[in-house]
Amino acid sequence: MTEKNFIPEIGLKGISQEGFADAFAVLEECLIEDVPAMGCVYPFFAPGGSYGPCWWNIDSSVALVGYRRKNRTLAENAMKNFFALQKEDGRIPLWGYDRVKNHDEDVSSLPKIVSVAALLARESEDQKFIEGCYALIARYLGWWKEKRFDEKTGLYSAVFEETFPPHLGKSRERAAADTNSELIVCFARAAELARRLGKAAEAERFEQEKRELADAVNRYLWDEEKGAYYPYLLQTGRREDFLVAAAFLPLRENAVPEERAKRLVSLLTGEKFGWKEFPVCSAAKDDKQFAVTEGEYQYNASWSGSVWTLLNEAVVQGLKDSGFKEPAAELAWRTVREFHANYAEFLQSFNGSGHGVKRYAWTASQYIELVLDVIFGISTDAGEKRVTVSPLLCGELQSGRLYAKNVRLPDGGTLSVEIENGKVKKAEAADTKYAVCVK
Predict the structure, then answer these.
(1) Pick the CATH number of 3-375 from 3.40.630.30, 1.50.10.10, 3.20.20.80, 2.60.40.10
(2) 31, 100, 187, 435: most buried, per Cβ within 10 A?
């Protein structure tokens, strides 16, 4: 069996193998193999559909998280494209054409690429690749510090798709919860990779930046009366009155004080964000800017009420980080069910119908991630030669038999996991030097 055709086999209630395999088919459809193109030497992933054969910082990197389960070599090579695409000052452009219409600033993207690079490095046995990922991350975070850091507050501003909904003004105007929460994660991943490479001083510096940014988020973005995190307007010193799902993202890296975290979970699982219907709405349903969009992507309106895997996956991770395993498991499973065989760009928040690009790369990738990395809890550490199985199962998955078979490991071996009535019954690796740890 060639690596390109290697797809894991899964058994989950109501989730067909055909539908699961179709997520990989979506990624294949988005793969641009005719290279060199747009600065890329290796094949890369386009977003899909009407977005054409262009790479995007966030879409093309997030796609690698799911696709690495099918072809790890291609995923690593696709990340190497960004080593070459990164600008001299450390910026990774928003997309292949770089310039943004009617905007005179250099623009990047919500920095999801850092977590993707760190994940691929953690699982890699190629020392040169690992060092390349670290260099990309360190230089990129240096660009953020130089171009987007606000000395007065300690927050980072964002422009255009460095935040969602996109900020259509200029940088140094608005500090959003998603941007700053993602950068907290970036500093954490940078510190972990620095430690692996024996760079103790750099690891401590990144840890310090993570702590300082978390303090700034909690100081400026939190509204005590409303019980949520809101964007902060740097020029006026006030919070923007727009309640979006990014309000939950400071839960990442356990950056939120316990009482605030409890209030956030209560808000999430109430009525405002569709918990009982199709969670998570990208904006509160009772907010004056809430919008329902159908058909093609409608820019900021589509980020003001639609359901996106990009938000759901981040909220799941935040709930896990902050110790709220039950709602994390529930949201992971409901997101998988919502998007199963429905790999659209976004969902309509009242009926779950798919809209925008119907076969969208990051949706398919994050669906795969939620199944294998989160629900089955499969993670790999190439440095430790260890694969860990730590399932995250909601009540519905606590009975019966679940399985994931032939999950590819970095050295070419495979892992198979069987769960019975909520407990790991078997976790076995074959043709590998990796040890298996069950938690």
Answers:
(1) 1.50.10.10
(2) 187
